[in-house]
Amino acid sequence: VAEVTDDNGHVRRLAKENIRFTLEGEGEIIGDASINANPRAVEWGSAPILVRSTMKPGKIKIHAEVQFPGTHAPTPADLEIESVAYQGTMMMGTKTAKSATSSSVQNASSATSSSSHEFTPEQKAKMLKEVEDQQADFGINN
């Protein structure tokens, strides 16, 4: 979590900067700009990110800086953490979580697109009647 602070170390709760994170080493940031994960908008003084380690233990260096630097902008900061090897049994084997997730998302999206079909007018009328009955039971009737 990157926190925007003043000169005395107090968190600036009303800060509105965007923080861009970069990572080096045995890890990766989960998400990107498409889900507003990186750069991340500061909310209530904080900008959290999720970091996933690789299968290999080692150092992870995280660098945080404002997206639009300036004279009065917060200064960049660095954090270095060390990941350790997992001692248990992996359910996924040697496959990385990122590749497994992307392939499962692709499989789910292709299954959805292949199973989509048009409803007949009778099916639509039946579904509409069911919703109408549910709303009447709930007390929403016109």
UniProtKB/TrEMBL annotation:
One Gene Ontology MF term: hydrolase activity, acting on glycosyl bonds
Task: Show where the Glycoside hydrolase family domain sits.
Answer: 2-66
List the InterPro entries hit by this protein, alphabetically.
Answer: Glyco_hydro2_dom5 (IPR040605), Ig-like_fold (IPR013783)
Q: Where in this protein does the record put region Disordered?
A: 95-124
* Iron in keyword set: no
Q: Where is the composition biased (Low complexity)?
A: 95-116
Q: Which UniProt keywords apply?
A: Glycosidase, Hydrolase
The family assignment reads: Belongs to the glycosyl hydrolase 2 family.
What is the name of this protein?
Answer: Beta-galactosidase
